[in-house]
Amino acid sequence: RMLSNLSLRDLAVASRVDLSLAPGMSVITGETGAGKSILVDALSLLAGGRADSGVVRQGSDRGEASADWDISAVPAATAWLKEHELDDEGQCLLRRVVPVSYTHLT
Q1: How many CB atoms lie within 10 A of CB 35?
Q2: Measured between alpha carbons, how far is 13 from 56 in angstroms, rounded to an integer?
Q3: What are the helix and strand counts (H, E) for the chain?
Q4: Edge-to-edge, what's the strand order for the sheet holding 91-99?
Q5: Cβ atoms 37, 26 nearer than 8 A
Q6: Residue 24, Cβ density class (10 Å: 0-12 exposed, 13-18 middle, ≥19 buried)
Q7: Which of 40, 74, 91, 97 is the 20 to 30 Å CA partner of 32?
Q8: pLDDT tens per residue, the chain (106 residues)?
Q9: 88 and 53 in contact (C-beta within 8 Å)?
Q10: Considering the entire predicted model, what is its pTM?
């Protein structure tokens, strides 16, 4: 339901990004090249989007994105996680690691 934290390690040109969001509306602004698209791309990766070694920061072994979602107000999601023994008291943590040797096969 609500994204509360987004962390990136060695993705695109970002070595490390830790973003904490408060309840309510959040707006991310910045100049061209500030990194807004990197955050959107990281969320896409976490949602199962395509990845290849090109997303890994040059000189790194792997890139990583993780997000912490507060799903306490979404009973169906909370129940599903509990049923699969993945519950963490209303939190859902997603993490994706892309090794530099990763190649997406089409």
Answers
A1: 17
A2: 8
A3: 2, 4
A4: 14-20, 2-11, 62-70, 91-99
A5: no
A6: exposed
A7: 97
A8: 589 999 999 998 888 999 999 888 888 888 988 888 899 999 999 999 988 888 899 999 999 999 999 988 888 988 898 899 887 788 889 999 999 885 555 4
A9: no
A10: 0.80
